[in-house]
């Protein structure tokens, strides 16, 4: 399989690029390196430094293609930054995504997959939340992700490009950026290693459906290998387990065998209260189930923080 991964020097994109390479696929990573890091791109994979908003993107892709799969993971992933600057968020996550979809069509890509988010649901009325739940995003980030899905749906039906949107839960792993949706885990790990207390915004009872990046990669590979069930389809990718921020802090403290000092500050605007998702549609289509349990994932994050920060 010939695969182009936008955001291929990022946390999820780089991990996915390695998995495609390891199974023998020909992989090209495209990244602006504004937030991505070149060292995240595995050996043996070409890195093309380019911005997804570049009007010349079709020519850039055509020079390396054609591709069986365009996997679109380039994005601004900082929900709080999106609140401060919605225009910048829309420029990358809406205009950039539209540019990638059009480039995939123009260069004859076989299919496109797209990293969407649980943020499209906002505060849903029921749990676990399935893909038929109302779409009522409460943040610019969620709005931008759903706009990308709508463009994907349009081009799937109007131009015949099969598009799959992955509505990810809160993705974490050993290289989780602190500015990402799962940044709370990375921040807590760094503070644990330093022997410092942690800050929780609001009462800490807000919950997230944390899913390990390795399970995200397995979902991507499973969909890449399956025939598209429809021109456009959206899949939740999550564990179906919700964890509150206070329970996360307590549990991470228990894993290192000492309680954490917790300080509360004012809640942040635009953050959903609860998140627990139903991934049965993805399971029915591909057989995917999450395999990385929360404890082993958290231990790996803490160990990586110890190695990185020298403690």
Major sheet characteristics? 7 strands, parallel
Mean pLDDT: 94
Query: How would you describe the shape?
Result: globular
Residues in helices, as a percent range: 25-40%
Number of strands: 13
Strand-residue proportion: 15-25%
- Any idea what the CATH superfamily of the largest domain is called? NAD(P)-binding Rossmann-like Domain
From the alpha carbons, calculate the radius of gyration and give it in angstroms: 19 Å
CATH architecture of the largest domain: 3-Layer(aba) Sandwich
The helix/strand series, from N terminus to C terminus, equals: EHEEHEHHEHEEHEEEHEEHEHH
CATH topology of the largest domain: Rossmann fold
Tally of individual domains = 2
Class per helix and strand makeup: alpha/beta
Please give the CATH class of the largest domain: Alpha Beta
Give the end-to-end Cα distance, rounded to a whole number of Å. Answer: 42 Å
Count of alpha/pi helices:
10
Which stretches of 5+ consecutive residues score pLDDT under 50? none
Largest sheet: spatial strand order = 3-2-1-4-5-6-11
Your description of this structure?
The chain is α/β, with parallel strands linked by helices. The chain has two domains: 2-170 and 210-237, Rossmann fold (3-Layer(aba) Sandwich), CATH 3.40.50; 177-209 and 241-276 and 293-309, UDP-galactose 4-epimerase, domain 1. 40% of the residues lie in helices and 18% in strands. The protein contains ten helices and 13 strands. It has helices spanning 11-22, 57-62, 79-84, 86-106, 140-159, 183-194, 213-225, 245-255, 280-286, 294-309; strands at 2-6, 26-31, 46-49, 69-72, 111-117, 163-168, 170-172, 198-201, 207-208, 210-212, 232-237, 243-244, 262-265. The strands form four sheets. It has a seven-stranded parallel β-sheet with strand order 3-2-1-4-5-6-11, sandwiched between helices. A two-stranded parallel ribbon has the order 7-10. Strand 1 (2-6), helix 1 and strand 2 (26-31) form a beta-alpha-beta unit. Helix 4 packs parallel to helix 5 and helix 6 (183-194) crosses helix 10 (294-309). It is globular and about 55 Å long. The N and C termini lie far apart (42 Å). The mean pLDDT is 94.
